[in-house]
Amino acid sequence: MHRVCYITNWSRYRSGEAKFEIEFIDPFMCSHIIYAYATVDDKKPEIIPIQKDDLEHYRELALLKRTNPNLKVSIRLGGKMSQYTRYLKQSKMAAQLVRSLIWYMATYGFDGIDIALEFLDADVPEDKAALTTLIEELIKQKRLMLRSIITLTAAPFVENLLKVYDIEKIGNLVDYINLMTFDFYGPWDEKTGVFAPLFHQHYQVEAESLRNVDGLVKLWLSLGIPRGKIIIGIPAYGRSFTLSSRQTSLHAPANGPGYPGRYTKTRGFLSYYEVCEKGQSQNWQRVWLDSEKAWYMTNGDQWITYEDVDSAALKAQYAKAERLGGVFIWSIDNDEFSGFFCNTEPFPITRQVFSTLNLPVPATSAPSIPIQQRMPAGIAPVTGAPTVRFVNVQAQNLPASPIIPNNLQQLLNALSVLSGTTSYTPIVESTAAPPPPPVAHQTYNAEYICARHHTGRNGIYRDRTNCSIFYFCEGNDLSSLRYHIFFCPPGLEFSMDACTCDWPTGRSCQATSETFCVSHPLITTTTTIRPTTTTIQSNIPQSAMFALNGLGQLLGISGGSTPIFDCAGRRSGLYRDMYDCTKFYFCTTNNQAPDGTLLRYDFVCPTNYAFSMTTCRCELGQSHTCHTLTKTDCLLL
I want to staple 46 with a disulfide (CB 3.0 to 4.6 A). Which of 100, 124, 135, 477 is the partner? Predict the structure, then answer.
């Protein structure tokens, strides 16, 4: 079963012990991480980050995947639905938006996309159509997304479910549906209520009887969604009410949200560590509701419904008993991630839920009212269910680039040459203690590295402390400095000898003050065919070639004294080196250069691989085909 962890990009800005960092995450705790979130630009159909530190977070997540190659990381696509609808109504803009989303995911190394758009209006049919269009367009381009996971996070709608989601289409398209099985009740109501009851309650009648975990799950199942596609949500937080009378029981009159938390600073919302901190005070009375399988606590005019270790474990038992696809935690940065507030191990709710998933299936109490009798008006159960599609996703380790080429389709088809280079020898998990977290200014800070160590030499620099990270620095002086950051794929390290990612040599990764690897002068391309002195701009490409799985394994740039391959006079495409079958080149037009000028990008196959003229990719054990060629073009655009 999937163990999905959401993290939010705003949790890093909380104060004191509540400040959350990616480095706090055990890379093996979650099977999937979803990072919330990216959104769409207000002025053009392009996906953009929300916070200034998001790109740094992306790189930190990539390091988690290096430790655990089986970990999958998705980006959550958020924001108001209306922002997307205006683009998705126009086919040209819809295509641009989807292309931007694919590029964003590939560029920053995400394994999937979680669509979690907010404020879907049941009275605006355009929103429903736009959401379906977005998913359909993504599926059409899924071959470009390298078997990535597409998930939908669905709000806990009951009465308006079919007005908001095209269940039949969406259910067949997405890989998983993350059901928000919480916030059924909250401080927006006029009386207190349990925000995530497990089963139907006697006071819930008609469609309201579906406002519980079991009810919402059974509703989606009745509409044809396979069990294996449904992942239920467990909140690591609480909802608070301000009471309007002296009553403190369940369903007591309320007058809006409770006081904001000390750290989260939002009325009506408290993280689990804030709830836990309050609960340690003798002024708070805790009450267990056996029917709802939930806690609440009260103090004066404050009333809090919340999830804790016990109630969360029951939901995990339910997910396993119902043979669902898994469980997600919203969000692990709201869990007691430090152990500071509750005197517990870090992430008590998250760890309890995930450990429960590994226990034998328990007996559960089924609701007394059949689902057919609780269906909202206009919703009829369906028979038969679409086949669930399980996706095997490989991690991507790709550099940042803002460019989205118009010929993305052609480029991606042509540059799938590297898909044969993704295999590597399994790494035996070490039993030793993990190394300390990297120092921020020494690890994946390309600007720092290039500015401090760039000495007029354009080229490749390895990170001073991390063997899996390297940079490409270019510029005539510091005022014109540009830099690019690259991550080696899991299992590979940057070789100072080969200037590329390669298999580890067996020597431990040592910190080094000399990080410069190879020089690449910035000079313009020539238009003369095979000149005696070639002048070639050779820099790490900023094109769609980085949107390919496995291409990150070949980010080295070739060198040596053999005759230099020249793109001048050639067509755009892939070419093998005439003399060295471990090298190949990509020639492409330069939008900033005169018409007809081509740039050359150089690549080196990993150790034991050679470029195959048959498959136009690096293949294992191709040394027997390594010989001098007169015709080197393999695939032309």
Answer: 100
Q: Where are the alpha helices (DSSP H) in 430-520?
A: 446-453
Sequence-ordered strand ranges (E) for 174-293? 176-179, 230-235, 237-243, 254-257, 269-271, 285-289
345 belongs to the catalytic site? no
Which pairs count as long-range contacts for 135-143, CB under 8 Å and 24+ apart, including other chains? 135/169, 135/170, 135/173, 135/174, 136/169, 136/173, 137/94, 137/95, 137/98, 138/98, 138/101, 138/102, 138/113, 139/173, 141/98, 141/99, 141/102
Q: What band does 635 get if pLDDT is binned at 50, 70 and 90?
A: low
Q: By mean pLDDT, which of 355-359, 376-380, 391-395, 443-447 is the weakest?
A: 391-395
Catalytic residue among 17, 21, 56, 118: 118
486 touches 473 (CB < 8 A): no
List the one residue out of 374, 368, 367, 366 whose CA is nearest residue 206: 374
Q: pTM for the complete prediction?
A: 0.62
Instruction: Return d(Cα 449, Cα 455) in angstroms, integer.
Output: 11
In 457-572 the beta strands, taken as DSSP E runs, fall at 459-462, 469-474, 482-487, 493-495, 500-502, 516-519
Per-residue DSSP letters for 328-358?
A: EEETTTTS--SSTTTSS-SSHHHHHHHHHTT
| CA–CA distances in Å: residue 620 to residues 6, 310, 394, 490, 602 | 38, 51, 19, 18, 19
Helix (H, G, I), strand (E, B) or coil at 2: strand
**Contact assessment for residue 131 and residue 348, using Cβ atoms and an 8 Å cutoff:** no
Q: Structural domains in the chain?
A: 2-233+308-374 (3.20.20.80), 408-425+437-636 (no CATH)
Q: How far apart are CA 468 and CA 466, in angstroms?
A: 5
Which carries the bigger pLDDT value, residue 425 or residue 372?
372
